[in-house]
Amino acid sequence: MRIAQIAPLHEAVPPKFYGGTERVVSYLTDALVDLGHDVTLFASGDSHTKATLEAAWPRALRLDPSTRDVLAPHMLMLEKVRRVAHEFDVLHFHLDYLPFPLFSHLNTPFVTTLHGRLDLPELQAVFNTFPKAPVVSISDSQRLPLPQANWLDTIYHGLPETLLTPQTQIEPQYLAFLGRLSPEKGVDVAIRIAAQSGLPLKIAAKIDKADQRYFKMEIEPLLSQAHVEFLGEISEQQKPGFLSGAKALLFPIDWSEPFGLVMIEAMACGTPVIAFNRGSVPEVIDHGVTGYICEDVQGAVGALQRLDDMSRTEIRAQFERRFSARTMARNYLDSYTSLLLASRRPVLRRAAAD
């Protein structure tokens, strides 16, 4: 197939540090190329990919403070895609609802993966207005606020199998928190869980501008506790050691997380996940196999006492079965095929492999 992947411009593909959507787009794009498909990636010019890169903006917007209107570059990218849409079998967007008005009127099949939260009231009118725009969810839980949307499939995220691997020479000694420092992620709860369990906690996290006040007022005063170490934002290369050195990853979220990429990152390293029962957690974590699903702090503290019941080798094996990038790519190919069949459009170029 000839496939276009259209990524957000906020981060490079893949991002240098934090950036869940752009990271998944990178993994998916490269996996599709590995399966023999002709893929073009529309992204920022500082992106790196196995596909053909079409630079829609010189560099990631996060690294370009001179760009104050971040919508403008995305509008230019959409127009760039529109002009060549006929050259592709499928257009795959990762831009929320931005493509709906323009691409609903073109003949080229398109699909949008929705990566974010969907419980915002204003989204109801959007999806009522575009009821036929095909969309993919990243968990069944994510769909619940928008039952009227044209759901094509639920496809879980995946990671390249060699990206994060268990570092078996490292002895797990602490609890880990990885991700973004925002109220809904529950880092303050993670600090409480660690304190009650008697284990040290290492926090590797990004602080967005929007969360800087929250960090200063609510979290920074907690970091002086003896059992807490704040590392800041870490790179992809640092993750295997960080996660392999953890007895467990704490994921005490206080919202309906659409997926939670850090959970499968931990699983890739053989590290169990202690997660609160919110959003996608019951779909991602196999309770008692790859981690424990808890309702509150006391449940999490109790779960930490049962970590010896789990096999880190089996956690890694379960990751390979369920959450590899190849599995994700094959699932998307099934969705692309169903779109093509529904549109009765011939394939422009078939895969050389797979």
Task: Work out the count of structural domains.
Answer: 2
- Please give the CATH architecture of the largest domain: 3-Layer(aba) Sandwich
The CATH topology of the largest domain is: Rossmann fold
How many beta-strand runs? 13
What does this protein look like?
Pfam families: Glyco_transf_4, Glycos_transf_1. The chain is of the alpha/beta class and 354 residues long. The protein folds into two domains: 2-160 and 324-343, Rossmann fold (3-Layer(aba) Sandwich); 174-322, 3-Layer(aba) Sandwich (Rossmann fold), CATH 3.40.50. It has helices at residues 20-34, 71-84, 100-103, 122-129, 140-143, 187-197, 212-219, 239-244, 261-268, 281-284, 297-304, 312-322, 325-343; strands at residues 2-6, 38-44, 52-57, 90-93, 110-113, 134-137, 150-154, 174-180, 201-206, 228-232, 246-251, 273-276, 291-294. A seven-stranded parallel beta sheet has the order 3-2-1-4-5-6-7. Strands 10-9-8-11-12-13 form a six-stranded parallel beta sheet, with helices on both faces. α3 (100-103) links the parallel β4 and β5 (110-113). α1 packs across α13 (325-343). It is globular, with a radius of gyration of 21 Å.
Notable characteristics:
Rossmann fold; 13 strands; 34% helix; 6-stranded parallel beta sheet; alpha/beta; globular; 2 domains; 13 helices; 7-stranded parallel beta sheet; transferase; 354 residues; single chain
Q: How would you summarize the topology of this molecule?
A:
Elements: E1 2-6, H1 20-34, E2 38-44, E3 52-57, H2 71-84, E4 90-93, H3 100-103, E5 110-113, H4 122-129, E6 134-137, H5 140-143, E7 150-154, E8 174-180, H6 187-197, E9 201-206, H7 212-219, E10 228-232, H8 239-244, E11 246-251, H9 261-268, E12 273-276, H10 281-284, E13 291-294, H11 297-304, H12 312-322, H13 325-343
Parallel strand pairs: 1-2, 1-4, 2-3, 4-5, 5-6, 6-7, 8-9, 8-11, 9-10, 11-12, 12-13
